[in-house]
Amino acid sequence: MTDQSSQSQTGADTLLGRLVVERGLATDQEVDICVKRQKEALEDSDPNQSSLAQLLIREGHVTKKQIERLMPEIEEQKVSRQIPGYQILGKLGAGAMATVYKARQISLDRLVAIKVLPKKYTRNQDFINRFYAEGRAAAKLNHPNIVGALDVGRAGDTHYFVMEYVKGKSVFEEMNDNGIYSEKNALNIGIQIAKALHHAHQAGFIHRDVKPKNIMITTDSVAKLADMGLARAIEDRDAAEAESGKAFGTPYYISPEQIRGEVDVDFRADLYGLGATMYHMVTGSVPFDGPNPSAVMHKHLKQELVPPDHITKELTTGICEIIEVCMAKDRDKRYGSASELVEDLEAVLLGDAPIHARNKFDISSWAALDNSEATTRDELANIEHRSEKPLAERPLFWIALAGWIFVFILIVILVVMAPR
């Protein structure tokens, strides 16, 4: 065990001992005895017996479940002690790549959010580089619809990124609580996030992971784009080539070109992600689903999109066209910029047609419709043609004529043979 890890372990154990006593799980004396045995084990270089938690459990003072319940608070207090100038107030959430805490910046007496890189990734330089890249990318973006970056740094073995604290919920959380969004609300959120993306694109960054979990809605109904963890400078060719052949993004919302690991992924991947997100918002279903990520990504590449209004019948044609253009598999058929998308979203919100989407809309579908209509017209023409044949060319005409001749002859015979 290194000196640094040993000191870290001792610090954690000190917190654990104090919390165990405060919760009434063990007495001061019982904890002191376990701490003494822990020191003896450390002196004997026996790391398997050096954990205070293990000793407390083995002596029957606490259970494993009780220790597990204390661990989140221990982690929070460790972070608070390790990051100078901030007081940790609680955990906001945790994912595979980071844990986010609510904190108070002591110097300015304001609430902030602190993202901390998990310890298991601190030995991987690639993860560390990506973590700091997120901070640098966010710091270059100043927009009301993007979660602001305040600080990024390292304290001991803790890598942290301080962000604006957003009081509210993510789109993902709101859908879990309230179900699908109304078309009006979805359009309003879409407009705000499209503006955020336009700002990022103009600054030279692509987000690459637009999804419901990365869109925060404040209590004042302001939408904010969060988590620049996969953001990359558009002109960063070295990074693009290093990532070539790898799929970066979330399977439910990832663009076809990201799935293929193309080198020249650009802003249109973000438009696809926003389109997929809005699809989920207004239908309650992800655009493509499957038993595993590979199956989902295969559908993004090959399967046709079920139109949103086939699921939510009351949707207008306008919002459906916008979503379908955003999610075109061929990126050349998507919007030419996020600002074009903003214009169409605002138009539909006002009850007007999405002009840019109409210009981009796949005319092959209209061609197919024209062919279908042509077929119907041909069939009708054939029917009309059959009905316009001369009487002499119709079989029923001759049958009727023969019948009338027979009746006429019969009448003549009856008249001739009648008595005078």
Write the topology of this structure.
Elements: H1 3-22, H2 28-43, H3 52-58, H4 64-82, E1 86-94, E2 99-105, E3 110-116, H5 125-139, E4 149-155, E5 158-164, E6 168-170, H6 171-178, H7 183-202, E7 205-206, E8 215-218, E9 223-225, E10 232-233, H8 237-242, H9 256-259, H10 268-283, H11 293-302, H12 317-326, H13 338-349, H14 355-360, H15 363-387, H16 395-417
Antiparallel strand pairs: 1-2, 2-3, 3-5, 4-5, 6-8, 7-10, 8-9
Helix pairs in contact: 1-2, 1-4, 7-10, 7-13, 10-12, 12-13
InterPro entries: Kinase-like_dom_sf, Prot_kinase_dom, Protein_kinase_ATP_BS, Ser/Thr_kinase_AS
Keywords: ATP-binding, Kinase, Membrane, Nucleotide-binding, Serine/threonine-protein kinase, Transferase, Transmembrane, Transmembrane helix
Binding site for ATP: 120
Model description:
The chain has 420 residues and is α+β, with helices and mostly antiparallel strands. Among the domains are: 83 residues, Phosphorylase Kinase, domain 1 (2-Layer Sandwich), CATH 3.30.200.20; 197 residues, Transferase(Phosphotransferase), domain 1 (Orthogonal Bundle), CATH 1.10.510.10. It contains 16 helices and ten strands. It has a five-stranded antiparallel β-sheet, sandwiched between helices. A hairpin with a 4-residue loop joins strand 2 and strand 3. Helix 1 crosses helix 4, helix 7 runs antiparallel to helix 13 and helix 10 crosses helix 12. The longest helix is centred in the last third of the chain and has 25 residues. The termini are far apart. 33% of the residues are buried. The N terminus is likely disordered. One of its GO terms (molecular function) is ATP binding. Keywords: ATP-binding, Kinase, Membrane, Nucleotide-binding, Serine/threonine-protein kinase, Transferase, Transmembrane, Transmembrane helix. It holds the Pfam family Pkinase. Its EC number is 2.7.11.1. This is non-specific serine/threonine protein kinase.
